[in-house]
Write a structure and sequence with these properties.
The protein has helices at 7-10, 24-34, 55-63, 74-77, 91-100, 120-125; strands at 17-18, 38-41, 51-54, 84-86, 105-110, 113-119. With 130 residues, the chain is of the alpha/beta class. The protein has a single domain, classed as CBS-domain. Strand 1 (17-18), helix 2 (24-34) and strand 2 form a beta-alpha-beta unit.
Length: 130
Amino acid sequence: MSYQKVVRDVMMPHFKKIEGVTRIMDALKMMREQKINAVLIEPRDDTDVYGIMTLKDIARKVIAERRKLHEVHVYEIMSKPVLSVPADMPLTYAARLLTNFNVSYGMVLDNNQIIGMVSLNGIVTQWEVE
């Protein structure tokens, strides 16, 4: 029987977490420098949960609305809560989960710790052609 790829095999282990009060201008600059398309937004306190902001959010909720990058904060456009995916989940199920919730990214958990991010793009580009 052949090995079935799991989320850990295709996740992005290098991800960034930022504060919700970060201005879009600063977040976008950091995302460009790091060559990443999404960032996790830190919870405000122990009762809060992680959020996520993607380049698509910036395009739809800031640029398309003619809002100024230096006036809008991340918390104003982020999505919350972030879908979490176990590191050992088979890729077929992870792809189904993300698409069922109509999201492109999930945070990857192992022992209740965030160890990376997974994207539909990453799943597709790393899928073995049979």
